Every structure is written in structure tokens, then in C-alpha cells.
Design the sequence.
């Protein structure tokens, strides 16, 4: 069984599986408002190692992410899938920004809130700048791929989207609870079957 290290946790995965599916199954901290349709970019991840085990960036990613952002290792979790058996290590943008904010609110020893604010602001600016810089091509691409209705209602399974959101939120809120951590050692549901 393949393994993906996400936000410093190791999860089982399948060849061809999308990273956002691995995250949702295991309630890892990731955004997925558009339900994996390549519209919201909340599933963006920073690939820390193992990029060669993933598919090449898709047209959708090129539509949303700048070349610089892609070169820095940022990908969309709903667009990248496992193509090799080597370990992939990623930090989701949601978790990256949560940690950056945490470092501002509770600065680690030897650091100050002010100096920790810089990486967070840089991240926010880079994230928004790329979206603004890609407008309106990104929305036109979404419209052409999915149609007007899906731009506003992209959810294939609203109940699953809500239940995954609730599980992720509960896990985040209970992150310091040993009982919750132990109970979530096993995946909540089996890996999804996805085309390789
Ligand atoms: S889940 Fe919305 S862009 Fe990936």
C-alpha cells in the first residue's frame, strides 16, 4: 500500500488516487469547497518531497497557479494524483497557514510575533495575487469545463462534503485530545477507486 505524508501524518493511499481524496478520507486539514472541481483552489498543497511520484501539473493548475507558484512546489490537491510508489510529503495550504498564524499568536521561543507575521502575509499575498493575475481566464476555464450551473453548485455529493468538513473540523478542534487521536488511527472509509 502506498503512503502519503500529509501535515506530518502518514496515510495509506492507492496508485492514481488524488491527494484531496486521501486528505478527506483521513480528515486531514485541507480545503475542498468546490468538491474537487478545480474551482476554489482551497485544496492547494505545498509538495515538500516526492514531486516525481505525482502526475504533471494539469491544465487546470496552469489556469490557477502562476509558474512561480508551481515551481515552488504548490499544486492543487484535487488535480495531483499518485503515479509512483515512492513516498510523497505534502503540507496543505490550510495547515501551512494555520501553523503560520499560530506562530504569530503564540511565537515559538526565540521568535517574535512580528517576524512570524511576514511568512503569513507573504503567503496570503502570493495566494491572492495569483488568482487576481489569472482572472478572468480561471473563471472562463471553469465555465467551459463545467458549465454555468456548476460554477455556483459544483457539489456532486453534498452530504459527503458536509460530513467530511465536519470530521476535519472536529479533528482540528480535538487535535490535542489523545483519545481522539487514538480513535482516528484507522481510515473512516476505504480508499476511493480512481483512474490511474
Ligand atoms: S477542491 Fe476546489 S480546487 Fe481543488
Sequence:
Amino acid at each position: 500500500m502506498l503512503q502519503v505524508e500529509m501535515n506530518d501524518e502518514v496515510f495509506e493511499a492507492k496508485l492514481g488516487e488524488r491527494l484531496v481524496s486521501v486528505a478527506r478520507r483521513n480528515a486531514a486539514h485541507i480545503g475542498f469547497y468546490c468538491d474537487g472541481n478545480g474551482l476554489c483552489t482551497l485544496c492547494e498543497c505545498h509538495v515538500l518531497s516526492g514531486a516525481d511520484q505525482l502526475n504533471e501539473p494539469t491544465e487546470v493548475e496552469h489556469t490557477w497557479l502562476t509558474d512561480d507558484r508551481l515551481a515552488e512546489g504548490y499544486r492543487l490537491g484535487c488535480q495531483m494524483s499518485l503515479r509512483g510508489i515512492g513516498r510523497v510529503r505534502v503540507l496543505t495550504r490550510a495547515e501551512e497557514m494555520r501553523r503560520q498564524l499560530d506562530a504569530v499568536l503564540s511565537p515559538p521561543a526565540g521568535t517574535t510575533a512580528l517576524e512570524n507575521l511576514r511568512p503569513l502575509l507573504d503567503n496570503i499575498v502570493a495566494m491572492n495575487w495569483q488568482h487576481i493575475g489569472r482572472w478572468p481566464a480561471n473563471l472562463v476555464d471553469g465555465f467551459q469545463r463545467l458549465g454555468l450551473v456548476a460554477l455556483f453548485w459544483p457539489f456532486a455529493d453534498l452530504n459527503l462534503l458536509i460530513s467530511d468538513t465536519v470530521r476535519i473540523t472536529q479533528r482540528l478542534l480535538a487535535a490535542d485530545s489523545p483519545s481522539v487521536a487514538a480513535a482516528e488511527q484507522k481510515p473512516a472509509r476505504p480508499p476511493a477507486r480512481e483512474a490511474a
About this structure: The CA atoms of residues 100 and 118 lie 9 Å apart. The beta strands are 2-6, 9-13, 44-49, 74-76, 88-92. Residues 2-183 form a domain with the Ubiquitin-like (UB roll) fold (CATH 3.10.20.30).
